[in-house]
Amino acid sequence: MKKPSPTALIILAFFAIYVIWGSTYLLNKISVAKLDPFMLASIRFVTAGLLIFVIAFFSGISLKISMRQFKNTVLAGFFFLTFGNGVVVWALKYVDSGFAALEIAAQPLVVLLMMWVLQGKKIRRMSLLGIFLGVIGMFLLVSQKEIVLQENALTGILMILACMLSWAYGSIFVGKAELPKNFFVNTGYQMVTGGLLLVFFSIVFGEKWVPLSQWGSDVIWAMVILIIFGSIAAFTAFNFLLKQVSPEKVSTNTYVNPIIALFLGWYFLGEKITLQSIIAALVLLTGVYFINTSRNRLGAPRTPKS
Q1: Where would I find the H helices in the chain?
Q2: CA 275: distance to chain centroid?
Q3: How do residues 74-111 score in pLDDT, each as one tens digit?
């Protein structure tokens, strides 16, 4: 059997980080309508992490790590998955999937500001322009009466902001922490430990664990896609691209994911796309472009994907 050409694999990998990651907001929105958020996220990550361990085992990849590495993967799993993703899923009960994707698109801005506050990193002029545009874009996005006046919408907005802070701190943490050298093993431990912490919080918050027989076909399919494609395939594609093309090209998913999420939310769920949201997206993503361009020129660490 003829192996796919490198060009074909690169195209498939970009499809994964563009479309599959962009669709995760829609899939989580569909699932959280019937399942409690921490239960939903815990099942996704524990299952995906265990599947990664199985793949690694049959691929001859050692799963052995040091105690320090294990502790650091637990912390990273908490910042990125337990809090960073679990609370976003919770927030999707209150805000549209496309809106959530646009707000999260400002993550590079939050990372840059946190690096400035915690590490004293100097901010270049291009990044300052990006921050200025990002703040304006965020203001345009969250100041819409159609959104703010919705029940619990402000709660959802603040929850996503808290998740962005968690991701930003996690990004700084993993830049210095000792983690497993194999990214596949690293991801597996983060997903399993982060997922188990989500199980703990699900129990603490008294969530109802709905049996599989009551999920419905739409939720089952959404979960299968989230586990196999959103958690395993897309992340593998992301790391494959980092070795094949420039970081600037890989980071373009930051701009494409919100557009995919907006379109899918409008098409499948009838979510409204306002003119102000479109303007906010253009301003915000332009700001993110300036920030990413400046960071890549400096060789700054990229924001890890969860």
Answers
A1: 6-15, 21-32, 37-58, 67-77, 86-91, 97-104, 107-119, 125-142, 145-148, 153-176, 183-204, 217-224, 234-244, 247-250, 253-269, 275-298
A2: 25
A3: 999 999 999 999 999 999 999 999 999 999 999 999 99
- Its pTM stands at 0.91
Across the chain, mean pLDDT equals 91
CA distances from 120 to 62, 98, 117, 237, 260 (A): 38, 33, 6, 33, 35
In total, the chain counts a number of residues equal to: 306
Classify residue 2: in a domain, yes or no: no
Helix axes 253-269, 97-104, angle to 10 degrees: 170
Total of domains in the chain: 1
Residue 204 lies in a domain: yes
Which domain does 257 fall in, by range?
A: 9-298
Residue 73, token pair as written in the block: 């993967």
Q: What percentage of the chain carries pLDDT values higher than 90? A: 76
pLDDT digits (tens, 9 = 90+) for 12-22: 999 999 999 99
Largest CA distance in the chain: 57
Structure tokens at 72: 């650091």
Q: Do the domain assignments include residue 152?
A: yes
CA angle, residues 178, 160, 285, in degrees to nearest 5: 90
The answer to whether residue 1 sits within a structural domain is no
What is the Cα–Cα distance from 289 to 248, expressed in whole angstroms?
A: 10
